[in-house]
């Protein structure tokens, strides 16, 4: 069954698929997460401090959960906004990944259900669930456990030979599947992501692990934070108006990145054509036309407007 699930996942457009045995996360991961929350490093993302027991044990999310199937879908765009124009993070170039990845995971689930029926083990109500950034689950931890990559010093999942431009999606199931072997980190002595971080949100610990202070991260500040962006941070934001890809662009594993075959994740001509003056005169109507069905809707018009005004103001100085 495991190989059938993985080959169906590939057929559905997932670049990688692996299986982990469901259980409690390890003690080190739990302690580090608890310390991070206790230090309020999650900023306004208050949801990250909720449901900690479920976050540390996915079996509490799905009754009798035995296995976690982890999938990764490539979103690396075929064409990019010119470097000297204002930047949007690659993941937000196209349509909202939540919808697309979830649709594919439901197709994978349907395939699994049919296999189960053939084997006389039909799924019972509520014994399987699909998650795409939609529940308290440590996705990158489980992706590493499922053997599809490792969590790099930039705190993103790195898939060997492919890089990190991937959306993760999970299926929690009561099926007791053969788990894959976890992958060790292959960051080695590299710390290019730390060096590339414009605001010091990523810092190197003495043991060569890294610490992430979300409150300094441009991605958090331009998308999640509702307050004005401080002048100290805006002076370091460069030309980023939505998200930040610097710790991924610096990663040597991303030299293996190839453009996604999912047309929905590519940028529209209209987005690629946007210039500073277009951003500055962006109306709510033009915003809707440009970002309808896009992940940029998370920041809403007012959020994007604030980012545009912040960068425009700083560039004037
Ligand atoms: S997304 Fe940008 S600001 Fe955030 S940690 Fe990475 S490089 Fe630093
Ligand atoms: S830049 Fe280097 S240290 Fe950072 S995630 Fe990539 S390989 Fe690891």
Task: Tell me about this structure.
This protein has 13 helices and 10 strands. The protein has about 325 residues and is α+β, with helices and mostly antiparallel strands. The protein has a 4-stranded antiparallel β-sheet with strand order 1-2-7-4, sandwiched between helices. A two-stranded parallel ribbon has the order 3-10. A two-stranded antiparallel ribbon has the order 5-6. The mean pLDDT is about 95. Bound molecules: iron/sulfur cluster (2 copies). One iron/sulfur cluster (SF4) binds near residues 197, 201 and 218.
Oligomer: single chain
DSSP strand (E) fraction? 5-15%
Reported for the largest beta sheet, the result is: 4 strands, antiparallel
Average pLDDT reading: 94
Find the count of extended strands (DSSP E, 2+ residues). 10
What is Rg? 20 Å
Please write the string of helix (H) and strand (E) elements.
Answer: HEHHEEHEHEEEHEEHHEHHHHH
Query: Approximately how much helix is present in the residues?
Result: 25-40%
Task: Tell me the strand order in the biggest sheet.
Answer: 1-2-7-4
* Class by alpha and beta content: alpha+beta
Count up the helices: 13
Distance between the termini: 61 Å
